[in-house]
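Example record

Each entry pairs one chain with its bound ligand, D-glutamic acid.
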Amino acid sequence: MNIGVFDSGLGGLTIFKELLKKLPQYNYIYLGDNARVPYGGRSPAVIYEFTKQGVEFLLKKNCQLIILACNTASTNALRRIQQEYLPVHYPDRRVLGIVLPSVEAVAESGTRRVGIIATWATVNSGSFVREIKKINQEIEVLQQAGPLLVPFIEEGEISGQFLEGILRRYLTPLVDANIDSLILGCTHYGLIKEAAEKITGPGVRVISEGEVVASKLKKYLARHHEIDKKLSKKGKRQYFVTDYSQRYQDLVKLFLGNHFSNGHKLKMVAL
Ligand code: DGL
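Structure tokens for the complex follow.
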């Protein structure tokens, strides 16, 4: 059986790339719902519906374990999928989110004041604040929505003055409030980490989620032998999108580099 990786578009590739580096032996299926990206300005009900459709597709493709490589989906749909959908339809499968790994990483780093930049839906869910406070009440958490960033990144704009201008507008209030760490709380933003670091300067630790998620998954699979033993380990990868174009395929190749070989193709699906 496979590991499924779901995102609304390209952002999940930042997680997927790290999974491929750290856990290359598994069979993976990546699904990007790029026909409906961005999710970040939508209501929790719609985000749940779209995410459930993506998860259903991956479950039908024999995914034993699915990573919601999207904070918007993790903060607005994960709990309902775990508590309402899976127990009824696929009780022996697992769906995991990506908020906790970076929250734990930042809380363990001794931070005093952390900034979160994320989509509106993630900010409004309050999940990051809640989870950080659960670990340490004393940590101050400041949130900032960055709604213009996902459309830019989906267009392949990951550096340059336009992007930096927008990023500066979003990050300046956090930097002025003297944050010592910044969580890029949207998987898309992992693609603009360098641009973010340029603006925050060396005094702020910028955390993108890929690496922490991959090491937590490695530990999870070591703990859950009953899941690990069901997973095929032939290093096979399949890619699905809800809107195919050659240009999009070139962007995937750009972000994944050698992990996306000539033999790989994006296949289009309707959810
Ligand atoms: N990649 C998604 C996240 O991590 C957001 C992109 C979107 O708005 O669809 O929040």
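The first helix runs from residue 12 to 22.
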